[in-house]
Amino acid sequence: MNPNDVREQVSRAxxxxxxxxxxxxxxxxxxGPAPQSAAARLAGYEQEAALxxxxxxxxxxxxxxxxxxxxxxxxxxxxxxxxAGLDLLIASDRVGPAGRVIGIDMTDAMLDAARxxxxxxxxxxxxxxxxxxxxxxVDDQSVDWVISNCVINLSxxxxxxxxxxxxxxxxxxxxxxxxxxxxxxxxxxxxxxxxYAACIGGAISEAEYLRGLAAAGLSDLRxxxxxxxxADQLAAITxxxxxxxxxxxxxxDQTLAELAGQVWSAQFTGRR
Length: 272
Hints:
The protein has helices at residues 3-21, 36-42, 46-51, 53-56, 86-95, 108-120, 158-168, 193-197, 206-215, 231-238, 242-245, 249-259, and strands spanning 76-80, 100-105, 126-130, 143-149, 169-182, 219-228, 263-271. By secondary structure, the protein is an alpha/beta fold. It has a single domain (3-271), classed as Rossmann fold. Helix 7 links the parallel strand 4 and strand 5 (169-182). Helix 10 packs across helix 12.
């Protein structure tokens, strides 16, 4: 698939998902009809959902990367694919007024939502920038932490993302990433931009993910936790994509049953 076509499909899907979330529709990674408060809790945001309710209602993550981080006051945190701003707000809490939080997203609707969330809560240490995670509008060696939540799987050039993470981190800087990985996937699913938007088509295996991080020069790599998805959870992730995938209900259910146990959310950590 053409990388620009993938990005256009992903951006369009998330703009639509954000609109639906304002009516309490939408699920993990922009998928289907599941109450957002429940989706946020399942992704590990029980306390944060209560503190930042409106931002949590538009969260499309698959984990809580900051739960696995040691972010401290006065540090600089960079969020790749910052979405509607929930992780930005949590990072802002961690770094305090003397710290700095930068969010990168390619979708204008998400940037607008994140700016609104920061404004509602009076956060002056949050900055939003439009850009691609493969070509970050961020200076070399300028951040202490890189975080990302269910976004890198959407990239058509993951090695470039991993290299960019190393470039922007200060020596000794760390990252914490929540992302979807897939142990095995039918080839036909990888040809669908809609499957990319559902966080499955572009996902790689956990082993390939770790190899990519290591090849970029990142070290101390760990998988801090995993949430393996069953067929019902996969149905929630892909809900709303049935028509785009060109599948009837029976075929989609059969495909999801075959994928059960092959798809999971992993929590990756490491350092430059």
